[in-house]
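Annotators were shown the component list below and the corresponding predicted structure, then asked to write short factual statements about the assembly.
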Amino acid sequence: MTDVHKPTTRPIKVLVTKIGLDGHDRGSRVVAAHLRDAGMEVVYTPPWQAIDAVVKLAMEEDVDVIGLSCLATDHLLVPKLMRALRDSGLAHIKVVVGGIVPDEDEAALLDAGVSRIFHPGTSLDDITETITDLAGLSLAPNERP
Amino acid sequence: MARKRAVLLQDDSIDAHAEWRRDYEQQLPHDKAVTNRSGIEIKPLYTPNDWNDASYVGDLGYPGQPPMTRGIYATMHRGRTWSQRQLIGLGTPLDYNQRLKRLIDAGTSAISLIPCNSVYRGYDIDEVDPLLVGTCGTTVNTIDDMDVCFRGINIGRISTAMNDPLPFTLLALLLAVAKRRGVSWDHVTGTSNQSDYISHFVANHMFFRLALPASRRLLVDHIAFCNQWVPNWNPLSVVGQHMQQAGATPAQAMAFTLCTAIQYAEDCINRDMDPETFLPRFTFFFDIAISFFEEIAKFRAGRRLWQKIVRQRFGVTNSKAWRFKFHAQTSGVDLTRQQPLNNIARVTTQAMAGIFGGLQSLHTDAYDEVLSTPTEAAAQIAISTQNILRDEAHLTDVIDPLAGSYYVETLTNQMEQKIEALIGQIDAAGGMFKAVEQGIVQNMVGESAREFAHQVETGEQVIVGVNAFQAEEDGSVRQPLERPEPHRIQNQLDQLRSFKAARDQSKVQSALDKLTAAANSDDINVFAEVVDAAIAGVTHGEIVACLRREMGAGEPLISI
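Structure shown to annotators:
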């Protein structure tokens, strides 16, 4: 028996990546492993991804959420990524940023369309829950409950 | 005498011990098992049954003598305290020069140079997004940039720690400046403190530029060149800090560092270099986590093991090579964004562990490191913390003051066993190079990182302000963010363009040709050609690009 009102039950798909120049990836690896253990499908890349490469991968892999780990000022590039996603018709993909984002820079990221910023000390379960909620919002209209 | 005391405990006080045990279990029926980060179970009480003076000579000896547990020099901190080596680097070479002079005035006795992330990745500043230029370190690309960094500073009289991964372009630029100023390379002192490419490949991918086999060759070229031409420079700092920051336990970090040093020594020996000569110039760099006694034991055990490795494995008789010289940095991973002033207490505790562990050089983190690139005001507190511990708390009056503690000695022995077992595992895998090629070490480090994250998640490991004792945030302690001014970065880009245009292009081309030839030969020292290229006006980015093309770019092995 199929309930037609239920959304497709495919797992949430998340791209965990790093843009810019920094290569510290303990945080992104721990979070990616946690999301995978929570049942999500995780696409994981090495650091230093170009913005174009992230957009292309997000499109090809049809992800629901992009998680960016930024520890050393690479968050300054996030507004450019948000623009590139919109320009490619991927505005429905939700973007979250984790790492070192100074208070002064937070508004610029949120204004650019970032859904949530996770500062150091955020619990892994909080990240999982937030991404689960956001993935629900990013479903295409015909997939929504 | 010592033996007698041990016997006494076993005979006469055995009842007293049993009685204490009974009382303890009665009063604390649900005592929780305590395990340190390295997985060693910690008991509530240590007595002469765990460690006693009968082991003094074998386990400890005297400072400056094998087994070196008590320190690598006879006088240790009483004779000379540690170098206060703070990481600095932000903005342009001129910004760096101004901050450097202020730090020297504030009592810094040794300096460091942290380049911009674009430099770390092997690029000149005109090859990356200008938004990122100079936000994390200094924009050093040319001999002129390096000259400005050290304007007004006698480079023959100060020890410089270069955060300079292979192919060591920053040291090459420094040597070029020395040549320009007529300073003999004999007087250039300091350390290439990002020379350990294995630690980059495993844990700090930030600095990884060239493919593994190319890296392996270039490091030996660099050590050989420095030994011959820059004899007071330490060409190698073997880094445990990266692996521990990436999640390795203290015991793992120490073990993998020693295995890495063994690998490099073997690589040098295979190139017919003499360990009696090159080993005294090996130095180490470690993380100091807040796990206080564990860190002290880690350093004491590491010191003992290194002299054993040098003497037994390599048969080196030069006692200078037995010295486990290390710089240490308080752990940034332990710091919290929540209630950030608490980080000053954390850094103080970490620094104390490092001092009791017998370090030679110390960097204390600024409390705001977890908020942004450290601000100058916070960096000043970090320096003061060291001054207070040394001059007010008198931590340096007595050498190895925790020696003889039943707990510290037992833990030192247990850490040593744990570290030796790990070294055995890496030996069995064919050595460190093979073990990282196969991803064995990366998996162990990743596993430990996940395990620690799990402990924090469950509250088993308390982090004040994060998973316990949460409080309202006081935003007033946050310093205003320091960012390089856009016009200064633009100016720097213009200068790079003019520098490139004004060079003697035929000299540049000929230096690049020689570099290319060395990279494709078996017997020309590649680093010698890097130095010549820097002198000829070739930029940092051009040197790295040439070697990447000729020797292969590096991509670290990453999995989740």
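Statements collected:
1. Confidence is low (pLDDT under 50) at residues 1-7 of chain B.
2. Chain B has one domain: 57-476.
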